[in-house]
Write a structure and sequence with these properties.
Blueprint lengths: L1 H19 L9 E3 L5 E3 L7 H5 L4 E6 L6 E7 L2 E6 L8 E7 L5 E2 L9 H8 L4 E3 L2 E5 L5 E7 L2 E8 L2
Antiparallel strand pairs: 1-2, 1-7, 3-4, 4-5, 5-6, 6-11, 8-9, 9-10, 10-11
Length: about 160
């Protein structure tokens, strides 16, 4: 019986050590759409309509970045902006915008939440620019959170 207790204690300690070794949530530029799909700034933008369906609105204009077109795909709760990639990919996701609480950031931030909830998720290390709180995230991605009357009204990730 004594041997069994020692084995149980060792097992509990081992599991506890493993739990302590998990990575903390990363502050990256990705969102979760209302349908549960993840999309990130910086990723290949080819096949957006195949992944997310027909957008409720679509716009394109001659790109300032290179040959081709900048494109904006609007879906319920979020927008995806792309521009032509220089490395052989058809398009590059440059901006993700959350327009209502249907979608959320990878850490769970949504439009309609408070500034306190934002700092609980992303911390207080941001720069205030007008009504926006701007965070520098991994890979030089910026997170712009617009706040009016302590309520988040818009969330935007921008690729460098």
């Amino acid at each position: 019986m004594n041997r069994m207790w020692k084995l149980c204690i060792c097992l509990v300690l081992f599991v506890g050590l493993l739990a302590g070794c998990t990575k903390p949530a990363q502050k990256t530029g990705h969102i979760l759409t209302p349908s549960g799909h993840a999309v990130s700034v910086g990723e290949d933008g080819a096949g957006i309509e195949a992944r997310f369906g027909t957008p409720v609105d679509y716009a394109e204009a001659q790109s300032c970045y290179g040959k081709g077109y900048d494109k904006v795909y609007t879906y319920p709760g979020f927008e995806i902006t792309t521009y032509p990639a220089q490395n052989g990919r058809s398009e590059f996701i440059s901006v993700l915008v959350l327009t209502d609480d249907a979608a959320q950031t990878g850490l769970g931030l949504k439009v309609g939440m408070s500034k306190t909830e934002m700092t609980d998720l992303y911390g207080g290390d941001f720069v205030q620019r007008g009504k926006s709180c701007v965070y520098m995230l991994e890979k030089d991605v910026t997170l712009w959170v617009d706040i009016e009357d302590d309520t988040i009204t818009r969330i935007e990730f921008r690729a460098p």
